[in-house]
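S.,

Sequence below, as promised.
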Amino acid sequence: MKPSFYSFLAVVTALPAYGGAARYRPRVLDWESTVGHDDHGLEARGPMPSTNSMTYATCTSHHSKLEDIPANVPAPCGPLYTLDTLASLLNHSLHTFETHVSPRLRAVATRLAQDHTNAAIRAFYTAHGPDYFTCVVLEAETCCGTCQRQFGAAAPDCRYCDAALCPGGLRYANVSEPCPPDYSLRGNHAGNYDWDTVYWTLSAGEKADAFYADLERATGVRRGETVVGALDHRPDKGGCRAGGGNEDCYTRGWDFGVPVLKGVGKREEEMVGDVVGRVEGVVSRARGMSATMTDSLSDLRAGGDGGEKDWLGEMVDAVSLPVKMVVRIIEFLEEVIQVLEQADHVDFEEAIRKLVTALMLQIPPHIKEELETIIAQIDKEEWLDIFDIINQIVTAILPALEEGLSLDTTPGSDGGFV
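The prediction came back faster than expected:
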């Protein structure tokens, strides 16, 4: 199953937009008693203090993880340490996004955008091949007896068999055949047509001009954006890659003599900019929340107090779930990118399935349903456009993040989501 730009984008787009306190009020800080980790991975530490007229200047410790906060901290410091740790986790995650995830996301999205456009070009010429091209197909020849016993004497799989190859020989032969979508002379069955390597020759003169004019009308790709070259349209060969010194790589899944993109064009740049820009736009909201948390902590440690309202506990309660979800989504993006950066995508669909399934255990129900729909698409499609999948994932998750980051956490406010 071939991964592509849009299936990649679907994975990114499905990241959950986590709801506000009114819909997903986190049960993270039961300050009435000391408890262990709750469902959200946060830990309650001691009785809830009143923040009215209380100074926090003595709360000077810092902790890298919530579970590192001691259970016996002084009562005024429990919620402050929790907020401080949440801010540290968020800041670390945002730094990871800026330095590692975002540039890698842009790079892999650019490659997948090129794959997406090349797939559109291929879809056109394979749908209209006989109108513009002549074709030579690289056919596998095997032992007639072995083939006929396996598939039957009249099977197309045995059309090019040779008794001289018995008992178990194999060779490849160039056979002139109609171009796709005419497979009437193929030496295999329908499920394997796409694995055949085909040499395409574009007719000269008016037919060539007509082909490029029709290609532009159908796909938007202009003749000047392409070059006649080779397309490896089945990179799921189990480690068999072009240029790897293995000649057998070229016997399966290649088109030679076809138009392919000669570089990244405005179309691909806009596709990438849309996907990456949407993700970066939402993450920028998390930077604003991080700044608010950091400023509040600085004010409190400088000797400030909670004012007339017990807003510190409300702030911790309000930001805990959004912080956790931003951190988890950035982790998920990095995991997806690692899969897509692999040279071969043999097990792409299974790898993405595992990542999405793990994410579904930690997200609100309505986002889970959208991710389940994407998994169903991965199962259904024989041919994956990864850019499309990633686009769907990003589209699914970003609205929830927007909702989760719509916070008013300034001291003296009512807290919660606006």
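The chain has two domains: 5-110+268-404, 130-263.

Coffee later?
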